[in-house]
Amino acid sequence: DAGITQSPRHKVTETGTPVTLRCHQTENHRYMYWYRQDPGHGLRLIHYSYGVKDTDKGEVSDGYSVSRSKTEDFLLTLESATSSQTSVYFCAIGQAMDTGELFFGEGSRLTVL
Amino acid sequence: AQKITQTQPGMFVQEKEAVTLDCTYDTSDPSYGLFWYKQPSSGEMIFLIYQGSYDQQNATEGRYSLNFQKARKSANLVISASQLGDSAMYFCAMRERSGGGADGLTFGKGTHLIIQP
Questions:
Q1: Which residues of A touch B25 (CB under 8 A)?
Q2: Is the peptide bond before A8 cis (omega within 30 degrees of 0)?
Q3: Any A CB within 8 A of B97 CB
Q4: Distance between B75 CA and the closest CA of chain A, angstroms
Q5: Are A28 and A71 in contact (CB under 8 A)?
Q6: Given CB atoms, is B112 within the 8 Å cutoff of chain A?
């Protein structure tokens, strides 16, 4: 199994508070991704990284920022959480662009009250 | 337009029967990859099978096979001899080479498969 750890796994917070989710990998994969999963929507890409300090926006990036200062860590930050950001967040990593599958973390369930 | 369409929100299948989960895709990129993932009730995402757009043969992995019909832009997952443990959400996904392919996978909305004894 790919070594991917997400933290925290569960978090309840209040509207307007900042939240940071961490993804840590031990596989030295170049590409890292943050997805959110909501009922009826499948998984949607928030942000991705193609190297240290190289990041870009995905389909649903509004309200989120990311940082990658080391190969192994990819942080997702909600500057001011809203109830619409209640979701399950998955980190994924990948090595090859063309044919490689993505390996997923176990998910982080975030509830914004 | 949706890039990945899974038209079956839910399916009930009798144990030991074969199952076909539908997936159609939309891309103008000549080079792409198609993936299927399984998500059991425990929540993890499990990679099942991959098909490249230039692959001549349908991909197979144990009881899983991918029925790839390029002209129809179809990539159906076939599970032979279904088992109770196959009950899960199944997601079809695509990766396009345009843009370098770095921007990950685009997922369909999923099919919830329930295997009945």
A1: none
A2: yes
A3: yes
A4: 16
A5: yes
A6: no
Give the dihedral of Cα atoms B27, A106, A48, B88; nearest 10 deg: 10
Q: Least CB-CB distance to B91: which of A42, A94, A106?
A: A42
Q: What is the pLDDT of residues A58-86, one digit of tens each?
A: 999 999 999 999 999 999 999 999 999 99
Q: For residues A32 and B6, what is the distance between their CA atoms, to the nearest angstrom?
A: 26
Return the structure tokens found at B48.
């099942």
The answer to whether the Cβ–Cβ distance between B47 and A103 falls below 8 Å is yes
Q: Do the Cβ atoms of A42 and B110 come within 8 Å?
A: yes
pLDDT score recorded for residue A41: 87
Low-confidence ranges of chain A (pLDDT < 70): 1-2, 96-99
- Give the three-state DSSP class for B11: strand
